[in-house]
Design a protein that fits this description.
Blueprint lengths: L2 H8 E2 L2 E3 L14 E5 L3 E4 L8 E4 L1 H6 L20 H11 L7 H31 L8 E6 L17 H5 L10 E4 L19 E7 L7 E8 L5 H12 L3 E13 L7 E7 L10 E4 L3 E4 L9 E11 L3 H14 L6 E9 L2 H9 L2 E9 L16 H6 L7 H18 L4 H16 L6
Parallel strand pairs: 4-16, 5-7, 9-10, 9-14, 14-15, 15-16
Antiparallel strand pairs: 1-4, 2-3, 6-8, 10-11, 12-13
Helix pairs in contact: 1-4, 3-4, 4-6, 4-10, 6-11, 7-8, 10-11
Length: 437
């Protein structure tokens, strides 16, 4: 299937919520209006008849707001999810302890698999936006799973981005009638694709994407949210002949009264462990760039913030504002990619800036809780990518980058060259030293 047809089939605009539709949180989420957010999209379909909420006594006592898992509505029935939402459900429902190294490696591999699956869609979206849909005519790409891992055909319904809607284009999901909430929040009863995290998605058979070679993409990696997705995304972009760079920054949220209280502000800072060297430069006091020009004459220069989990969007918003001021780019040339978005607050905030917002994973349409968290969410994505050891020195950062690269290179051996180029380049940029391979 060509890329533009795939985009049309498996994405839709994000529609604005009817804020008057759910007074008192009587339903699992707001009903959506027919008005789409501009310059937005999400993968697969979303429900618009949110089920009513039944509270259990312990839920009432706890004071936890009602929850609904948005990926309920992504599967063909109550037994199976599409590939992308299966990855999200793994990360969401399984206990991933960032203090346990095997759990961290598991999280890294699953997140890398997601990034490889969704990036061709994102690159196609950017190309269509900037050069017109005709620029993608004839452009085709295949994403398969590594056959050396001996998976059974029935384990993965269709080895592509959104298997259900490619195989059954007229399918509409069954509605969820009622949801019961407990202290821990609702959990989906649907099963995930077995052992999906063991299979490495591979991009192959790229055809006719000449317009993409006219793109130059800066991936802005906010260390708090983890840098893995940006580095893997840059590796995928290189397979399409796109020039790219990865820019490091950090954004630390200030809370009113401890980490479980509302956010009072955001400090955009240099990433922890950064060491100044001849291989990098700093723009806007906080953004660490490679020692080369970010704006390439003669190319369309695009800026991508890959935020794995989008809730209130306050950190990403402040980082974008400071980045735009430092670079001087147009907001319309900034894209935010999220693999897992909750509610509408963050989407609304970022779209209001004039940037492009694309949820290429799961959009849980439920309300955020009283302090702006998705519950149940993915946890701290940065900790789960890097582990809980606080990075305070360049040596620690280099060690973490080396370990992450080694894990992903063994998981995706056919992408080893592209991954090494990105991870080693970023290690030199941030610490002045190459990976310890």
């Amino acid at each position: 299937m060509d890329l533009i047809s795939l985009l049309d089939k498996v994405t839709e605009p994000i529609f604005m919520p009817d804020l008057s539709s759910d007074p008192g949180f009587e339903h699992a989420s707001f009903t959506e209006t027919v008005a789409p957010y501009p310059k937005s999209s999400r993968l697969l379909k979303a429900f618009n008849n949110p089920p009513k909420v039944t509270w259990r006594e312990e839920g009432k006592i706890s004071g936890i707001l009602p929850r609904e898992i948005g990926s309920y509505n992504l599967g063909p029935d109550d037994r199976q999810f599409p590939v992308v939402s299966s990855y999200i459900e793994l990360l969401r429902n399984e206990g991933i302890n960032p203090a346990v190294p095997p759990d961290v490696e598991y999280f890294q591999r699953t997140l890398a698999g997601l990034s490889v699956l969704v990036m061709p869609l994102m690159l196609a979206r950017i190309t269509a936006d900037k050069f017109g849909e005709r620029s993608l005519e004839g452009a085709d790409v295949s994403v398969l799973f590594d056959p050396s891992r001996n998976y059974r055909r029935e384990d993965i319904i269709h080895s592509t981005y959104a298997n259900i809607f490619l195989d059954r284009p007229n399918y509409m999901p069954d509605p969820v009638v009622e949801v019961t909430y407990t202290i821990g929040g609702a959990r989906s009863s649907a099963s995930i694709i077995p052992r999906i995290h063991e299979y490495a998605p591979l991009i192959k058979d790229i055809e006719g994407c000449d317009s993409m070679k006219d793109l130059n993409i800066s991936f802005i990696a906010i260390h708090r949210g983890g840098i893995e997705t940006s580095l893997v995304a840059a590796a995928v972009a290189s397979q399409f002949g796109i020039t790219s760079s990865v820019i490091g920054v950090d954004a630390k949220r200030r809370h009113e009264d401890g980490p479980s209280s509302p956010v009072a502000g955001v400090d955009v800072t240099l990433p922890p462990g950064y060491a100044s060297s001849e291989y990098s430069r700093i723009i806007g006091d906080s953004f660490v760039t490679p020692d080369k020009r970010l704006i390439v004459p003669g190319k369309k220069n695009i800026h991508v913030f890959f935020d794995p989990m989008l809730a209130t969007g306050v950190s990403t918003e402040e980082t974008i504002i400071q980045y735009q001021k430092a670079i001087g780019c147009e907001f319309d040339d900034i894209y935010v990619i999220s693999l897992f978005a909750g509610g509408y607050d963050g989407i609304d905030k970022l779209v209001s800036l004039g940037v492009n917002v694309h949820v290429l994973g799961v959009h849980d349409q439920a309300h955020l809780n009283s302090v702006g968290y998705i519950q149940p969410g993915l946890g701290d994505a940065g900790d789960k990518q890097f582990g809980t050891d606080k990075i305070t020195t360049p040596e620690m950062l280099l060690e973490k980058l080396t370990g992450m690269y080694a894990n992903l290179a063994s998981f995706m051996p056919k992408m080893q060259k592209e991954l090494f180029h990105q991870f080693n380049g970023y290690a030199i940029q941030m610490t002045g030293n190459q990976l310890k391979i």
